[in-house]
Amino acid sequence: MKTVDTDVLVVGAGPGGSMAAKFAARNGVRTLLIEKRQEIGSPVRCAEGIARDWMEECEVEKDPAWIACVPEAARIFAPDGSCALVHIDRAGNEVGFVLERALFDKALARHAAQAGAEIMLKTSARDVIRSNGAVGGVLGQSMGEAIEIRAQITIAADGFESQVARWAGLETGLATGDVVSTFQYRLCNIDSDARYCDFHVGSFAPGGYVWVFPKGHNTANVGIGVQMTQLRTPGETKARLDSWIAGQPAYRKGQPLDLIGGAVSTCKPLSKTAAAGIMLVGDAARLINPLTGGGIVNACISGKLAGETAAAAVKRGDCSESFLQKYEKAWRARLEKELIRNYMAKEKIAKLDDEAFNRIVQTLSEVNPRASSLSLLLAVSKKHPELVADFVELLWA
Amino acid sequence: MIWNTLGDGVRVNVKNQICLHCGACVGACPTNSIFLHGTSTIEFLPSCTECGLCVVVCPVGAILETSEQAAASILPFGQRFPEARP
Question: Nearest CB to A179: which of B28, B55, B76?
Fold first, then answer.
């Protein structure tokens, strides 16, 4: 068996993994980033919407190479066709840019390499190595060969699957109400308005929504998310999207350039994301925004924090759970309040019927589209107090 | 290709022509019993409890249940799902 030794091992070269590798390597520790696929960023499993206001924090410079489209606003469509406009600076996590994810992921991995990280492709983990009650790396396969990768710190950035965490004994299991099954086409030859990222809510997508994110050239990512508890038959997620598209004159003549499936978690923040020798970041840590299903920004932020903590731990020679609490505390201070608020909102919204959606979108459409997301919520709370009753104190926090 | 390591009798049947290797089933599996090898092979481990979550979360319907036991309990899906984190 091939054996490799490193200080910090990062499993998964998505945005969270590459960011963790960049900030670990830059702080002077040996860093290895492994990716099970043969190409970083491909195949894309993403609707590709992302906010604008996080890049400085993660030291990422905007590059036109990975921006497909810069929309002006988000539109939320009710089942009755009425529409609320939300200006892009206020639309929350998903719609500042529409990315070219395959290029974006490669750019972030390149930044990690420039900082000194090593990258191994077609290298997957199959179990964790346990030594003295701590995680000491992973066992896996690299180019078809068994491999043992020994590391002082393992950062699990393996996405929704979150297998590394579970092998390490961390609880990342999901309740069925906190899983959304997703399916998307990239459709060309449609009537697409590149100024808007569209969200369609209603009983065609129970517990989720349909999105249309423009990619330019009359092409858009058209996808659906459906809460798993609402699904009854195999393949229903795809069938629901097909049937929605068939009812849309602007989209039904569209032709697919690719199709992707997947799932996202919409749960509350986990109670534990670090243990001796291991930290979880991004989707693997269930840091997806429960309201929108967007995960890239939180993956990048948590990746940065984990990478910095990993380097500090290695330098101090202390990879204990108590030292890694530094990471746990840092991401909670930065992200937890919003995750909890959005989880509460999602729990309410998942139960709404079409009539309620019509009323809420009507209320939103009466608010200035440049109003803050807080004032949007406050407007809703004024007219529909029952919707925010459970978390109204969080609005003021 | 499907590696079925469940033991006696095939209890899940993955239609490999449909499977996108997207990982939805892997993440939804409450017992971490599904493993994707690269982008071509899916393996079910003996720890599978036949709960059926993978069948319903699969966005394209690539996973079917084939045993009599599973078929007898196939509907309604929602009623026999365990709550992994109650």
Answer: B28
